[in-house]
Amino acid sequence: MSDLLSVTRAMELVLGYAGTFGTETVDLEMAAGRVLQQTIRAERAQPPYDRVMMDGIAFRYGSDLPLLSHGTQRAGAPGQALPEGAACLDVMTGAVLPEGADTVVPVERLVRDGRMVRFEDGYEPRQGQFIHRRGSDCAAGTELLSGGRRLDGPALAVLAGNGHAQVSVSRIPSIGIVATGDELVDVGGPVRDWEIRRSNEYALTGALLSRGFNCIERSVVPDDLPLMMAALREQLSRHDVLILSGGVSMGAFDHVPRALSKLGVERVFHKVAQRPGKPLWFGVGPEGQRVFGLPGNPVSATTCGVRYVMPMLLAGQGLCRGKTHAVRLKAEAELIPTLTRFLPVRVGHDETGQAVAIPYPMPTSGDFSFLAATDGFVELPRGEGMAPRGTVALFHGW
Ligand SMILES: Nc1nc2c(c(=O)[nH]1)N[C@H]1C(S)=C(S)[C@@H](COP(=O)(O)OP(=O)(O)OC[C@H]3O[C@@H](n4cnc5c(N)ncnc54)[C@H](O)[C@@H]3O)O[C@H]1N2
Ligand code: MOO
């Protein structure tokens, strides 16, 4: 058994610092994808009046035929009264049902002769048909949305339909992504034989943006302790969360833990019993900044970002579930006796519709090209031998 921190315990520690990033009020236009932080109740009964559901005529069920049409009840106009006798009013979908009418017949069932109206041969309306009754969806004051949910299209429609031009949502934290490493060069510039282009920041940016975290600053610091400290001091002053990549293992220039500690960032843990990503570092800054030191290898940085950083950020928004669900392994997969294994997979479905994961073992945790062929990874507990085909595992999507 490994005496390193387990993945479960490391995650508990991270979530223990998730807290909240506060709330803010935004215009409805800007609320899509945000996490609601208030209870929304029905402004009025819904629908607010007996609503005509078909273009046609409204009449009193049982009236003698033919009916005499006395005019038109349009949508957006106050309700009219249906005259006594064999009478009807032309009605439009969405109009108020005329007072005294109780049944609607669609226009395609009508035979008209001037203002006289009868039904097509053999047509028998049911009393009360095609009327959406006042309050049948909900009574005024009914709870329609509760806090802690993402605002998708239907939820935005509920907000709009109940008069919420502004809405209280979780504040999106400000996030600094900091790359470390003297070998790293920018995406747009020249690259020499001994250098590599920075890519981890973009894997992290993709994961963040696809979860709605759009307040991101990317920067790079050199493998030099004083320069790194100056840059990290500045970054700590600007952001709620720092996600560093690289510089957390045992190399002579892996200054990240030392620099953070000198800046008063308290280490919560360093190293977790997992592969990839064993050198993961997590701490909390003097102002409560959450600071992740992700191992620099691209597969490790990407995996740890999804496994630890994203759940913490989502929890801070009041959401408990990210892009995770159970899958069955489509092929056996090798376990690691002392470490939790994060195994990249593609996700598909079997003939019964169940989600299955096809393992894509990475040759090394540097192979980020290969990672782009996968949808995410499954989490396999430490163990001997092989996890057989059909094993149920938790999948985490990129
Ligand atoms: N003696 C030991 N050496 C290493 C250990 C160990 O336990 N003992 N752990 C290994 C593991 S596991 C990992 S993962 C790496 C993590 O190292 P660092 O976090 O210090 O990362 P670096 O050394 O700075 O970089 C590793 C690798 O990743 C590339 N990299 C870094 N940043 C980026 C970026 N932004 N975009 C793309 N690629 C990046 C970097 O060039 C290196 O190739 O340590 C092992 N060593
Ligand atoms: O995180 Mo390291 O190998 O486990 O790349």
From TrEMBL:
Co-factor requirement: Mg(2+)
PROSITE patterns: MOCF_BIOSYNTHESIS_2
Boundaries of every MoaB/Mog domain copy: 176-315
Keyword hit for Magnesium: yes
BP terms from Gene Ontology: Mo-molybdopterin cofactor biosynthetic process
UniProt-listed InterPro entries: MoaB/Mog-like_dom_sf, MoaB/Mog_dom, MoCF_biosynth_CS, MoeA-like, MoeA_C_domain_IV, MoeA_C_domain_IV_sf, MoeA_linker/N, MoeA_linker/N_sf
Pfam families documented for this protein: MoCF_biosynth, MoeA_C, MoeA_N
E.C. code: 2.10.1.1
Any one of the GO CC terms: cytosol
SMART domains noted in UniProt: MoCF_biosynth
Glycoprotein recorded as keyword: no
GO molecular function: metal ion binding; molybdopterin molybdotransferase activity
Catalysed reactions listed for this entry: adenylyl-molybdopterin + molybdate = Mo-molybdopterin + AMP + H(+)
Keyword list, A-Z: Magnesium, Metal-binding, Molybdenum, Molybdenum cofactor biosynthesis, Transferase
Pathway: Cofactor biosynthesis; molybdopterin biosynthesis
Family (UniProt): Belongs to the MoeA family.
Functional note: Catalyzes the insertion of molybdate into adenylated molybdopterin with the concomitant release of AMP.
UniProt protein name: Molybdopterin molybdenumtransferase
Species: Gluconobacter kanchanaburiensis NBRC 103587
